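Encode chain A's predicted structure.
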Amino acid sequence: MTGTGPLELLGVDHLLTDDERDIQASVREFVNRRVRPNIADWYEHGEIDLALLREAGSMGLLGMHLEGYGCAGTNATAYGLACLELEAGDSGVRSMVSVQGSLAMFAIWKFGSEEQKTTWLPRMAAGDAIGCFGLTEPDFGSNPSGMRTRAKADGEDWVLNGTKAWITNGSVAHVAVVWAQTDEGLKGFLVPTDTPGFSAPKITRKLSLRASITSELILEDVRLPADAVLGGVTGLRGPLSCLNEARFGIVFGALGAARDCLQTTIEYAKTREVFDRPLAAFQLTQAKLADMTLELQKGYLLALHLGRLKDDHRLEPRQVSLGKLNNVREALTIARECRTILGANGITLEYPVLRHANNLESVLTYEGTSEVHQLIIGQALTGENAFS
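Encoded structure for chain A:
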């Protein structure tokens, strides 16, 4: 008997269009060629090759689900499948791409002026300019309304002061989308990173997402012209809508990490001899593999359903919360269970499982913790707001 892949058991490939399958295959080839041979070294040394972003731009992956301004204009499901393949390589690679497209570019595309869009989006879509998204602060993650970063009007200018934390791409970005309190409410600002008073020290000594650049953003009397404001929105609706875009990518992306763990573990179990038999021949091993495959396939069907809802403009934020809560939680469980089958080999960078598990600890937290998504779902079910 021959084995069947963990995402092939239900035979759902017909649910994708030819274009979606082609995009997924091209991103998988890119990951196999550029990420897999290097990711263990990048992870170990806490670095990543920034040329990946320009290569992703040449493939149309940056802001790929946005229309115009050099963006590919694909559907949401194709974007999700691309995230799945990128995260099968590493969560840090998917984070770099999704922060560029679903946070920084989306904010400009959705809320920016025509001048802001034409200035930044074509360069960002090509990977020639890197963006970051400054919302989270050292003391305000799940409660962004409490942020202390403030922008004060000074004549026709704005002056920004504050600190942001855990910002992907921060120290290498050319433009930062920074959210700040004003007398008129929360506003977004486009901050060129060479503006006096702006700095982005890199956060080091991470045990997760090591192949991803993470920084603080420090703003000390950063003076911006009036046209730096993202004028299309005031209030939390702006940044939260951007987060919802990024969460959608995570619904698919986390499955890529889980699939990579499971495929690796199946191949390992088929070749590892224990008591003169392949590890895959033991009942306990097969039970673990069966349970993990079941959860992976369920998560994939959920992701596809949400993708179709989004393509039909019917996807609600609380539905994205269902997807992120389930798929990241199950992906992390799969990574941990795969590690048990690999035994001691599972803790080395020779195999990807503990790297994925460590990364997924961050994915579990960012773009809304599991607890936040539980409360969003709980509010949808009961009508009661338990956040405050």
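The longest strand covers residues 157-168.
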